[in-house]
């Protein structure tokens, strides 16, 4: 088996026929749902951006919860340390 055949996964002719057939199937699917390749890529980037935005919003929300809890917990901890050290 030549290096080219090994790289392609078969003879160049058979690989070309397989790629043309798969391209036809995918093209028909996209045309049926009226999706362009550009729109598909744009949706992918928008989805990735929304995941990052959601992650950032989640981090901000958790940080807010920590701050709210610390407003109560830290003074109580400080008071318990001050009055507990007299033992």
Automatic annotation (TrEMBL):
Listed name of the protein: Integrase
Boundaries of every DUF6460 domain copy: 51-86
Record InterPro entries: DUF6460 (IPR045594)
Record's keyword terms, sorted: Membrane, Transmembrane, Transmembrane helix
Spans traversing the lipid bilayer: 15-32, 66-84
Source species of the chain: Microvirga mediterraneensis
Source taxon at top rank: Bacteria
